Amino acid sequence: MSTLPSGVAPERTIGPFQLLALGVNGIVGVGIFFAPAEVAAQAPGLGAVWAFALTGLALVPVAFAFAVLGRRFDSDGGPVVFARAAFGERVSFLVGWVAYVSAFLSTSAVMAGLARAVAPSVGLGGPVGERLLASALVTGLAALVASGIRVSARTWTALTVLKLVPLAVLLGAFFFLPDRDVPPPLPATGASWLKAGLTVMFAYQGFEIVPVIAGQVRASERTVPMATVGSLLLAMLLYVGLVWACVAALPDLASASAPLAQAAGVWSGAGMERLVGAGTSVSALGICVGMMVTTPRYLSALASGERSLFGLERMSESGVPMRALAVTWALVLGFVNLGDLSELFALSAIAVLMQFGVTAAALAVLSLRRERNLRPVHALLAVPTLVLGLTLVAFGASAREAAVASVAVLAGLALMRLSRPREPAPVRLP
């Protein structure tokens, strides 16, 4: 597959609905199928519903911060390009590198988990079978992504619809079918609101990936803000309704092993319970597709500034950073064959903090400089974003995550030394 010359953009193929689907797909992952029980352990009864509602509202200013900057940067990278404009190459490179390391480690963990869940049903039980299936999944999804952003967009959009259908049916059964003979929900009680809110905050992650593919989006100045904020608002409405259905159906929600599936069984019977349970795997597959699309773009974005790194920024005619994708495929393939990957989410809190914090700081700096048609009033959006980011790292990140992040930063500094100043583009005479 041929690549475009440096500085030449591919045809933009992503429309509003597909970008909105990417954001919703990023948020509505596997976590929501289990998070209601975890939150109910800290906020019993209707407290769990309020935790999802209030945390979602608290994240709206964060989504607006990403939206305000996203509409002003018409290229792939999201927080990487925001940091480059506000703070220069070094900060941008380190932000992109930590985001990339966290993304490919999380991608490896999700793919390995999906393979482990599906392997017995396809006759590939045992560690060897699980690794073979995980390797085939990684390679197949990499090939799909390599075929072009148009094909990837159709795939993640279809999977997003498929994962939402059983959840929408569950909500319909809860709100519109005749009342079932179930105990009333418990009233809200005293709760560990901070811990509950942190759990919910992780469940809402995903809208921040929307600006990462801005360079492939038609009319990105309108589409990126709509999809960033819209995906969070849609997920918030969905989550509040689902948790409410779980609270009403399961008096002992905190001890439920699969709360959404069990609530579906209460409201619609065993068939619906099996359908929602199967939706967990569909949702995981959708997340895997989205991750394979966006993760290489962090790598290509950090190599697209004033310094070049092994040509990782080169884009194919179909809108794919092929070298960055190849590196990501090799890394994920290696990690899914290591065995237990439950610890590979070690950078997630720190990486989210960096993306939230750098985006907020970049918005404040660029607003005060009045660059990119920003005004000082836009800097106000940075305040809640920074507060949430600091809360996340102070109470949600562990010492182990900080240590892993430090190692990643040191590796990034070493990698940065391998980069070379970009040669100026040749001047074309008329």
Automatic annotation (TrEMBL):
It is found in: Cell membrane. The chain crosses the membrane at residues 19-37, 49-70, 91-112, 132-149, 156-176, 196-214, 226-250, 275-299, 320-338, 344-365, 377-396, 402-419. The keyword Transmembrane applies. One of its GO terms (molecular function) is transmembrane transporter activity. Pfam families: AA_permease_2 (PF13520). InterPro entries: AA/rel_permease1, APC_superfamily. It is a multi-pass membrane protein. GO terms for cellular component: plasma membrane. Major component of the acid-resistance (AR) system allowing enteric pathogens to survive the acidic environment in the stomach. Exchanges extracellular arginine for its intracellular decarboxylation product agmatine (Agm) thereby expelling intracellular protons. Probably undergoes several conformational states in order to translocate the substrate across the membrane; keeps the substrate accessible to only 1 side of the membrane at a time by opening and closing 3 membrane-internal gates. Belongs to the amino acid-polyamine-organocation (APC) superfamily. Basic amino acid/polyamine antiporter (APA) (TC 2.A.3.2) family. This is Arginine/agmatine antiporter.
